[in-house]
């Protein structure tokens, strides 16, 4: 039997704990913790994500500031918006939705965000803090994956983990977090030789390659825990009325893992909802730090 890891339910619980602490923060300071989200351009998927995030921020009792800028916005204008948010005392967290239009240098924008408001954890200062084990902001998706893994497995110490993907926003920070949990970590990617054999060694598989249903059930060691970070929109197989319709699938071939994996996250309803819940958690942590208030490291 393969258990389903219900990320949606776990994320709801996390958001309700964040909501309680956000109310306590407001009672102590007389203001709400605030998250600013900057969206450049009209990408429909990004708009949906930004809208969901705004709704959930408000539902948690925090303030949401949305800045929607046209696709033609210059890099200089975007940097000026970020600097204004850095200086705004009501803004605790800043998220600039990626990807940005091609004429804007993403690294330059991320470097402009105050690291203590960088709730995405993308700034080099936060990547460095994670690498050397200092407190800082950890990217939301990998932190959410570790929360799900610890909820399922308890201690991860000594387990073999394979991370498929080496991006700055998922693969690399995921590997750092698993090292900190005392896993033996392998980072595989598109050039890895004998990928199926490498994955077969793993007690924990984290798939973040961005290729729909690439990881097959016969790559999985029986009983392993599978975390699927992929979010791929694929066309629904042709049938009457299905023209132009899409469905969401992960990087793991979910059906072929049934009966082999010990547990697996679904897509949707797995890692995705955790990403937003951790973003709200990071924003609340930022609000406490930036107001000089204590918050126990394991409070959320
Ligand atoms: N600076 C920045 N930070 C981000 O964290 C960031 C970003 N840019 N750019 C885009 C990606 C994507 N992302 C998602 C978050 C939640 C879901 C999510 O909740 N997904 C639902 C399904 C939603 C649906 O049905 O489309 C689920 O998996 O159940 C998806 C995708 C955050 N991102």
UniProtKB/TrEMBL annotation:
Q: Which residues belong to any copy of the Tetrahydrofolate dehydrogenase/cyclohydrolase NAD(P)-binding domain?
A: 139-290
Q: Which residues form the Tetrahydrofolate dehydrogenase/cyclohydrolase catalytic domain?
A: 5-120
Pfam families from the xrefs? Answer: THF_DHG_CYH (PF00763), THF_DHG_CYH_C (PF02882)
Query: In the Enzyme Commission scheme, what number(s) does this protein have?
Result: 1.5.1.5, 3.5.4.9
Gene3D superfamilies annotated for this entry? Leucine Dehydrogenase, chain A, domain 1, NAD(P)-binding Rossmann-like Domain
Q: Which residues are recorded as binding NADP(+)?
A: 165-167, 231
InterPro entries to which the protein is assigned, alphabetical: Aminoacid_DH-like_N_sf, NAD(P)-bd_dom_sf, THF_DH/CycHdrlase, THF_DH/CycHdrlase_cat_dom, THF_DH/CycHdrlase_CS, THF_DH/CycHdrlase_NAD-bd_dom
This protein's assembly is summarised as: Homodimer.
Q: What biological function has been recorded for the protein in this entry?
A: Catalyzes the oxidation of 5,10-methylenetetrahydrofolate to 5,10-methenyltetrahydrofolate and then the hydrolysis of 5,10-methenyltetrahydrofolate to 10-formyltetrahydrofolate.
The record's comment on protein family reads: Belongs to the tetrahydrofolate dehydrogenase/cyclohydrolase family.
Can you name this protein?
Answer: Bifunctional protein FolD
Native species = Novosphingobium bradum
């Amino acid at each position: 039997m393969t258990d389903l890891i219900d990320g949606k339910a776990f994320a709801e619980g996390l958001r309700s704990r964040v909501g309680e602490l956000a109310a306590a923060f407001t009672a102590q300071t007389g203001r709400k913790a605030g998250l600013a989200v900057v969206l450049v351009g009209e990408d429909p998927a990004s708009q949906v994500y930004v809208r969901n995030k705004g709704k959930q921020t408000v539902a948690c009792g925090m303030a949401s500031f949305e800045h929607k800028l046209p696709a033609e916005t210059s890099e200089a204008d975007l940097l000026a918006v970020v600097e204004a948010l850095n200086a705004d005392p009501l803004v605790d967290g800043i998220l600039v939705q990626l990807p940005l239009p091609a004429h804007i240098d993403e690294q330059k924008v991320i470097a402009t965000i105050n690291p203590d408001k960088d709730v995405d954890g993308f700034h080099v200062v936060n990547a460095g803090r994670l690498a050397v084990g200092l407190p800082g902001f950890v990217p939301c998706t990998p932190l959410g994956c570790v929360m799900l893994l610890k909820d399922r497995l308890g201690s991860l110490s000594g387990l073999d983990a394979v991370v498929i993907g080496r991006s700055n926003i998922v693969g690399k920070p995921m590997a750092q977090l698993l090292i900190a949990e005392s896993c033996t970590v392998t980072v595989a990617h598109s050039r890895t030789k004998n990928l199926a054999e490498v994955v077969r060694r793993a007690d924990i598989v984290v798939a973040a390659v961005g290729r729909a249903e690439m990881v097959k059930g016969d790559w999985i060691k029986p009983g392993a825990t599978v975390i699927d970070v992929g979010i791929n929109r694929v066309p629904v197989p042709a049938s009457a009325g299905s023209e132009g319709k899409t469905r969401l699938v992960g990087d793991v071939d979910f059906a072929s893992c049934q009966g082999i994996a010990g547990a697996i996250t679904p897509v949707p309803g797995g890692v995705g909802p955790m990403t937003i819940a951790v973003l709200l958690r990071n924003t609340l942590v930022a609000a406490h730090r930036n107001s000089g208030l204590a918050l126990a490291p394991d409070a959320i």
